[in-house]
Design goal:
Elements (H helix, E strand, L loop, with lengths): L1 H67 L1 H41 L10 H55 L20 H71 L9 H40 L2
Length: 317
Amino acid sequence: MKHCLKLLLLSLVIIFPIDLIHAKEDKELRQQRQAAQQERQAEKKLRNQEITDSIKSFSEFTASLRSEYPPLLQEIDTEFEFKQVDLQADRNAKIAEAEAEYQTLWTSLLMPQGGQPPKDALKEIEEKAKALSDKLFQLKEEAAQAEHKEKIASKKQKHTLLEERDTRALDEAASLGLTKKYEPIIAKPIGGELTRQETQWNEREEKDLERIHQRNQKIIQEFRTGQKLREWELQNFDEDFQLQWKEKRELHELETQQQFFNSLLMQPAQGAEVKQQDIMAKFAEIAKQNKLVKIKYDTIRKKNSITRREEKKKLQE
Protein backbone atom coordinates (compact mmCIF):
# COMPACT_ATOMS: atom_id res chain seq x y z
CA MET A 1 0.00 0.00 0.00
CA LYS A 2 2.77 2.39 0.93
CA HIS A 3 4.61 1.39 -2.23
CA CYS A 4 1.60 2.29 -4.41
CA LEU A 5 1.20 5.65 -2.72
CA LYS A 6 4.85 6.51 -3.41
CA LEU A 7 4.40 5.67 -7.08
CA LEU A 8 1.32 7.89 -7.33
CA LEU A 9 3.08 10.83 -5.75
CA LEU A 10 6.08 10.35 -8.02
CA SER A 11 3.90 10.35 -11.17
CA LEU A 12 2.19 13.57 -10.09
CA VAL A 13 5.54 15.23 -9.59
CA ILE A 14 6.57 14.21 -13.13
CA ILE A 15 3.29 15.07 -14.93
CA PHE A 16 2.61 18.51 -13.46
CA PRO A 17 5.94 20.06 -14.53
CA ILE A 18 5.42 18.75 -18.09
CA ASP A 19 1.91 20.29 -18.26
CA LEU A 20 3.30 23.54 -16.92
CA ILE A 21 5.95 23.56 -19.66
CA HIS A 22 3.32 22.90 -22.38
CA ALA A 23 1.08 25.64 -21.05
CA LYS A 24 4.00 28.06 -21.09
CA GLU A 25 4.88 27.09 -24.69
CA ASP A 26 1.26 27.48 -25.85
CA LYS A 27 1.09 30.93 -24.32
CA GLU A 28 4.30 31.97 -26.05
CA LEU A 29 3.01 30.68 -29.42
CA ARG A 30 -0.25 32.56 -28.99
CA GLN A 31 1.64 35.73 -28.21
CA GLN A 32 3.91 35.27 -31.23
CA ARG A 33 0.93 34.60 -33.50
CA GLN A 34 -0.96 37.60 -32.17
CA ALA A 35 2.09 39.80 -32.70
CA ALA A 36 2.52 38.45 -36.26
CA GLN A 37 -1.16 39.05 -36.98
CA GLN A 38 -0.98 42.62 -35.74
CA GLU A 39 2.09 43.19 -37.91
CA ARG A 40 0.26 41.79 -40.98
CA GLN A 41 -2.78 43.94 -40.30
CA ALA A 42 -0.65 47.08 -39.94
CA GLU A 43 1.21 46.24 -43.16
CA LYS A 44 -2.06 45.62 -45.00
CA LYS A 45 -3.48 48.90 -43.74
CA LEU A 46 -0.46 50.77 -45.07
CA ARG A 47 -0.71 48.99 -48.44
CA ASN A 48 -4.42 49.76 -48.76
CA GLN A 49 -3.80 53.41 -47.94
CA GLU A 50 -1.01 53.50 -50.53
CA ILE A 51 -3.36 52.08 -53.17
CA THR A 52 -6.11 54.54 -52.23
CA ASP A 53 -3.67 57.46 -52.48
CA SER A 54 -2.38 56.18 -55.83
CA ILE A 55 -5.89 55.93 -57.28
CA LYS A 56 -6.69 59.44 -56.09
CA SER A 57 -3.46 60.83 -57.58
CA PHE A 58 -4.10 59.03 -60.87
CA SER A 59 -7.66 60.34 -61.01
CA GLU A 60 -6.41 63.90 -60.54
CA PHE A 61 -3.68 63.41 -63.16
CA THR A 62 -6.07 62.01 -65.78
CA ALA A 63 -8.60 64.76 -65.07
CA SER A 64 -5.87 67.24 -65.95
CA LEU A 65 -5.06 65.30 -69.13
CA ARG A 66 -8.69 65.26 -70.18
CA SER A 67 -8.87 69.02 -69.91
CA GLU A 68 -5.52 69.54 -71.67
CA TYR A 69 -6.17 67.66 -74.93
CA PRO A 70 -9.69 68.69 -76.12
CA PRO A 71 -8.53 72.17 -77.27
CA LEU A 72 -5.72 70.53 -79.27
CA LEU A 73 -8.16 68.08 -80.83
CA GLN A 74 -10.55 70.92 -81.63
CA GLU A 75 -7.81 72.73 -83.53
CA ILE A 76 -7.44 69.68 -85.79
CA ASP A 77 -11.22 69.53 -86.31
CA THR A 78 -11.33 73.23 -87.18
CA GLU A 79 -8.49 72.85 -89.68
CA PHE A 80 -10.34 69.96 -91.35
CA GLU A 81 -13.58 71.97 -91.48
CA PHE A 82 -11.82 74.73 -93.44
CA LYS A 83 -10.43 72.14 -95.86
CA GLN A 84 -13.85 70.53 -96.11
CA VAL A 85 -15.47 73.84 -97.09
CA ASP A 86 -12.92 74.33 -99.88
CA LEU A 87 -13.29 70.75 -101.09
CA GLN A 88 -17.07 70.97 -101.14
CA ALA A 89 -17.02 74.30 -102.97
CA ASP A 90 -14.69 72.87 -105.61
CA ARG A 91 -16.82 69.73 -105.86
CA ASN A 92 -20.08 71.66 -106.21
CA ALA A 93 -18.62 73.88 -108.92
CA LYS A 94 -17.45 70.88 -110.94
CA ILE A 95 -20.74 69.06 -110.46
CA ALA A 96 -22.77 72.12 -111.50
CA GLU A 97 -20.72 72.41 -114.68
CA ALA A 98 -21.03 68.69 -115.39
CA GLU A 99 -24.78 68.72 -114.75
CA ALA A 100 -25.26 71.62 -117.17
CA GLU A 101 -23.25 69.72 -119.78
CA TYR A 102 -25.27 66.60 -119.07
CA GLN A 103 -28.58 68.44 -119.52
CA THR A 104 -27.44 70.02 -122.77
CA LEU A 105 -26.24 66.75 -124.22
CA TRP A 106 -29.32 64.92 -122.98
CA THR A 107 -31.60 67.43 -124.72
CA SER A 108 -29.61 67.07 -127.92
CA LEU A 109 -30.03 63.30 -127.75
CA LEU A 110 -33.78 63.55 -127.40
CA MET A 111 -34.13 66.25 -130.08
CA PRO A 112 -31.35 65.84 -132.66
CA GLN A 113 -30.95 68.72 -135.07
CA GLY A 114 -31.38 67.62 -138.70
CA GLY A 115 -30.74 64.29 -140.29
CA GLN A 116 -32.54 61.01 -139.80
CA PRO A 117 -32.35 59.22 -136.48
CA PRO A 118 -30.51 55.91 -136.44
CA LYS A 119 -32.43 52.72 -136.99
CA ASP A 120 -32.11 51.71 -133.33
CA ALA A 121 -32.46 55.24 -131.87
CA LEU A 122 -33.70 54.24 -128.40
CA LYS A 123 -30.77 51.94 -127.69
CA GLU A 124 -28.23 54.52 -128.86
CA ILE A 125 -29.80 57.27 -126.75
CA GLU A 126 -29.82 54.98 -123.69
CA GLU A 127 -26.12 54.13 -124.11
CA LYS A 128 -25.10 57.77 -124.52
CA ALA A 129 -27.27 58.87 -121.61
CA LYS A 130 -25.69 56.22 -119.41
CA ALA A 131 -22.19 57.34 -120.38
CA LEU A 132 -23.03 60.92 -119.44
CA SER A 133 -24.64 59.88 -116.17
CA ASP A 134 -21.68 57.64 -115.28
CA LYS A 135 -19.29 60.51 -115.89
CA LEU A 136 -21.28 62.74 -113.53
CA PHE A 137 -21.45 60.02 -110.87
CA GLN A 138 -17.70 59.38 -111.12
CA LEU A 139 -17.08 63.07 -110.52
CA LYS A 140 -19.21 62.98 -107.35
CA GLU A 141 -17.49 59.83 -106.11
CA GLU A 142 -14.00 61.22 -106.70
CA ALA A 143 -14.93 64.36 -104.77
CA ALA A 144 -16.30 62.26 -101.91
CA GLN A 145 -13.16 60.10 -101.87
CA ALA A 146 -10.97 63.21 -101.68
CA GLU A 147 -12.96 64.54 -98.73
CA HIS A 148 -12.89 61.10 -97.08
CA LYS A 149 -9.10 60.96 -97.46
CA GLU A 150 -8.76 64.32 -95.69
CA LYS A 151 -11.11 63.13 -92.95
CA ILE A 152 -8.98 60.05 -92.33
CA ALA A 153 -5.82 62.18 -92.23
CA SER A 154 -7.51 64.42 -89.67
CA LYS A 155 -8.53 61.43 -87.54
CA LYS A 156 -4.98 60.06 -87.63
CA GLN A 157 -3.65 63.42 -86.41
CA LYS A 158 -6.04 63.24 -83.49
CA HIS A 159 -5.05 59.64 -82.81
CA THR A 160 -1.40 60.69 -82.53
CA LEU A 161 -2.33 63.21 -79.85
CA LEU A 162 -4.53 60.73 -78.00
CA GLU A 163 -1.79 58.09 -78.12
CA GLU A 164 0.54 60.62 -76.51
CA ARG A 165 -2.09 61.25 -73.83
CA ASP A 166 -2.53 57.50 -73.21
CA THR A 167 1.22 56.97 -72.90
CA ARG A 168 1.49 59.74 -70.32
CA ALA A 169 -1.41 58.25 -68.37
CA LEU A 170 0.09 54.73 -68.39
CA ASP A 171 3.50 56.02 -67.35
CA GLU A 172 1.87 57.80 -64.42
CA ALA A 173 -0.10 54.67 -63.51
CA ALA A 174 3.10 52.60 -63.53
CA SER A 175 4.92 55.12 -61.33
CA LEU A 176 2.02 54.94 -58.85
CA GLY A 177 2.08 51.15 -58.82
CA LEU A 178 -1.32 50.70 -60.45
CA THR A 179 -0.03 48.45 -63.23
CA LYS A 180 1.72 45.93 -60.98
CA LYS A 181 0.48 42.96 -59.01
CA TYR A 182 1.09 43.46 -55.30
CA GLU A 183 2.90 40.76 -53.34
CA PRO A 184 0.62 39.07 -50.81
CA ILE A 185 1.20 39.62 -47.11
CA ILE A 186 1.44 35.95 -46.16
CA ALA A 187 0.97 34.44 -42.73
CA LYS A 188 3.94 32.14 -42.09
CA PRO A 189 3.85 29.06 -39.85
CA ILE A 190 4.73 29.67 -36.21
CA GLY A 191 5.25 26.52 -34.20
CA GLY A 192 5.47 24.27 -37.24
CA GLU A 193 2.12 24.77 -38.97
CA LEU A 194 -0.51 27.34 -39.88
CA THR A 195 -3.58 27.76 -37.75
CA ARG A 196 -7.02 27.74 -39.34
CA GLN A 197 -7.19 31.51 -38.90
CA GLU A 198 -3.81 31.97 -40.62
CA THR A 199 -4.86 29.70 -43.51
CA GLN A 200 -8.03 31.78 -43.98
CA TRP A 201 -5.95 34.98 -43.89
CA ASN A 202 -3.75 33.73 -46.74
CA GLU A 203 -6.77 32.70 -48.82
CA ARG A 204 -8.44 36.09 -48.32
CA GLU A 205 -5.19 37.87 -49.16
CA GLU A 206 -4.92 36.12 -52.53
CA LYS A 207 -8.55 36.96 -53.35
CA ASP A 208 -8.16 40.59 -52.23
CA LEU A 209 -5.06 41.10 -54.36
CA GLU A 210 -6.76 39.66 -57.43
CA ARG A 211 -9.73 41.95 -56.85
CA ILE A 212 -7.41 44.96 -56.44
CA HIS A 213 -5.53 44.07 -59.63
CA GLN A 214 -8.76 43.71 -61.63
CA ARG A 215 -10.03 47.03 -60.29
CA ASN A 216 -6.78 48.80 -61.18
CA GLN A 217 -6.88 47.30 -64.66
CA LYS A 218 -10.35 48.77 -65.16
CA ILE A 219 -9.10 52.17 -64.00
CA ILE A 220 -6.35 52.24 -66.63
CA GLN A 221 -8.22 50.27 -69.32
CA GLU A 222 -9.29 53.35 -71.26
CA PHE A 223 -5.64 54.30 -71.79
CA ARG A 224 -4.34 50.75 -72.26
CA THR A 225 -6.77 49.80 -75.04
CA GLY A 226 -7.44 53.28 -76.46
CA GLN A 227 -5.10 53.14 -79.44
CA LYS A 228 -6.24 49.67 -80.52
CA LEU A 229 -9.86 50.79 -80.35
CA ARG A 230 -9.18 53.96 -82.32
CA GLU A 231 -7.36 52.08 -85.08
CA TRP A 232 -10.19 49.56 -85.20
CA GLU A 233 -12.80 52.34 -85.39
CA LEU A 234 -10.86 54.08 -88.16
CA GLN A 235 -10.77 50.87 -90.16
CA ASN A 236 -14.53 50.50 -89.67
CA PHE A 237 -15.03 54.14 -90.71
CA ASP A 238 -13.21 53.49 -93.98
CA GLU A 239 -15.01 50.18 -94.58
CA ASP A 240 -18.39 51.85 -94.02
CA PHE A 241 -17.54 54.64 -96.45
CA GLN A 242 -16.43 52.20 -99.17
CA LEU A 243 -19.52 50.07 -98.59
CA GLN A 244 -21.73 53.15 -98.85
CA TRP A 245 -20.29 54.07 -102.25
CA LYS A 246 -20.45 50.49 -103.46
CA GLU A 247 -24.17 50.60 -102.70
CA LYS A 248 -24.47 54.02 -104.35
CA ARG A 249 -22.86 52.69 -107.51
CA GLU A 250 -25.41 49.89 -107.77
CA LEU A 251 -28.28 52.26 -107.05
CA HIS A 252 -26.83 54.71 -109.55
CA GLU A 253 -27.17 52.13 -112.31
CA LEU A 254 -30.86 51.78 -111.51
CA GLU A 255 -31.35 55.51 -111.07
CA THR A 256 -29.82 56.14 -114.49
CA GLN A 257 -32.35 53.80 -116.07
CA GLN A 258 -35.17 55.41 -114.10
CA GLN A 259 -34.20 58.91 -115.24
CA PHE A 260 -33.86 57.76 -118.84
CA PHE A 261 -37.34 56.27 -118.99
CA ASN A 262 -38.84 59.19 -117.07
CA SER A 263 -37.42 61.54 -119.67
CA LEU A 264 -38.81 59.42 -122.48
CA LEU A 265 -42.26 59.58 -120.94
CA MET A 266 -42.07 63.35 -120.54
CA GLN A 267 -40.50 64.00 -123.94
CA PRO A 268 -40.20 61.04 -126.35
CA ALA A 269 -37.08 61.02 -128.48
CA GLN A 270 -37.45 61.71 -132.17
CA GLY A 271 -37.30 58.53 -134.18
CA ALA A 272 -37.57 56.30 -131.13
CA GLU A 273 -40.53 54.02 -130.79
CA VAL A 274 -41.67 54.17 -127.19
CA LYS A 275 -44.47 52.08 -125.76
CA GLN A 276 -45.81 53.30 -122.45
CA GLN A 277 -46.66 49.77 -121.36
CA ASP A 278 -43.03 48.68 -121.87
CA ILE A 279 -41.75 51.64 -119.87
CA MET A 280 -44.10 50.90 -116.98
CA ALA A 281 -42.80 47.34 -116.92
CA LYS A 282 -39.27 48.74 -116.80
CA PHE A 283 -40.25 50.96 -113.85
CA ALA A 284 -41.61 47.95 -111.96
CA GLU A 285 -38.40 45.98 -112.53
CA ILE A 286 -36.21 48.93 -111.52
CA ALA A 287 -38.24 49.42 -108.32
CA LYS A 288 -37.84 45.73 -107.46
CA GLN A 289 -34.07 45.77 -108.09
CA ASN A 290 -33.76 48.96 -106.03
CA LYS A 291 -35.37 47.26 -103.03
CA LEU A 292 -33.19 44.16 -103.43
CA VAL A 293 -30.02 46.28 -103.46
CA LYS A 294 -31.08 48.09 -100.29
CA ILE A 295 -31.98 44.81 -98.59
CA LYS A 296 -28.58 43.37 -99.52
CA TYR A 297 -26.62 46.26 -98.05
CA ASP A 298 -28.87 46.55 -95.02
CA THR A 299 -28.10 42.87 -94.30
CA ILE A 300 -24.36 43.49 -94.67
CA ARG A 301 -24.51 46.41 -92.23
CA LYS A 302 -26.49 44.47 -89.64
CA LYS A 303 -24.02 41.57 -89.80
CA ASN A 304 -21.11 44.01 -89.55
CA SER A 305 -22.71 45.50 -86.46
CA ILE A 306 -22.90 42.10 -84.76
CA THR A 307 -19.34 41.21 -85.74
CA ARG A 308 -17.99 44.55 -84.51
CA ARG A 309 -19.81 44.26 -81.21
CA GLU A 310 -17.96 41.00 -80.50
CA GLU A 311 -14.66 42.40 -81.79
CA LYS A 312 -14.96 45.40 -79.48
CA LYS A 313 -15.48 43.14 -76.46
CA LYS A 314 -12.22 41.32 -77.23
CA LEU A 315 -10.31 44.55 -77.78
CA GLN A 316 -11.44 45.85 -74.39
CA GLU A 317 -10.33 42.74 -72.50
